[in-house]
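The following record pairs a protein chain with its ligand, cobalamin.
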Amino acid sequence: MTRIMTIPELRTALIQNIADLNEAASLSLVQALIENQTEPLEIVQDCQEGMRQVGERYERGEYFLSALIMAGEIFREVMEMVTPLIKERFRGNESGVILLGTVEGDIHDIGKNNLSLLLTSYGFTVHDLGVDVPPSEFLRQAQALHPDIIGLSGLLTSSYDSMKRTVQLLRNAEDARVVKTPVIIGGNQLNEQVCQYAGADAWVNDAMSGVRWCQRLLGHRS
Ligand code: B12
């Protein structure tokens, strides 16, 4: 007889199966969690933890680049399953324009896309410049769109320099509105030190904290 797993057990198993790159098992666990009314963001959080563990195994030489690619593919499939729930669960009438992109040299976009989905669900207008975005492109778009906030995503250590160069270019712009536009940076490995180094106004490790920061800054209520 198979015992029915509790929600905490399902969540632990999901982290483990993502880390082990078991695609079918991971997706079945996500399905089971959805059927058990688990918060979609908790599912995303568990997958993020599983991905972190994939990264650790890669760093230790237990996994190769193909594992990172596979992990990205599993996450994409999970997002396909939870996106409708996120759109349904998180709704808002926020107004505000956010310019977003992954900084130059970095092509990681799963977290950025996640943030974009949440911001859009809350009603913000997001201009997503994609990945590997040079500082000059952030500047050009900031001058054209005059966003309320600029969000930079970066997961590589080398991205901190790209973030710094981007912020510097924005702060030295001729357009006074661009100079004053708040900049938030996001990524799994960021901390206060990186934020200060890059010269950004805020940093976060998860998308929901990023949304809350945008809400607070623009004076809206959730
Ligand atoms: C999947 C993955 C890949 C995939 C990415 C697919 C894709 N479409 O994004 C691929 C295979 C392309 C890849 C490539 C590489 N990767 Co990679 N990758 C990962 C992995 C395993 C998961 C990343 C991820 O998607 N996490 C899940 C998301 C949801 O989390 P997140 O990105 O942190 O985003 C959340 C928050 O941070 C926040 N957020 C993110 N951005 C923003 C922005 C703003 C404004 C805000 C407010 C919030 C916010 O919201 C999100 C949701 O909560 C990480 C491991 C890790 N620890 O993260 C390594 C990792 C980032 N990769 C790494 C490396 C080394 C590489 C490669 C250099 C490997 C190689 N030899 O080629 C290349 C780099 C390519 C490049 N130039 O960018 C290293 C980086 C090490 C370092 N310190 O620099 C890591 C940390 C793995 C490791 N531990 O060694 N990778």
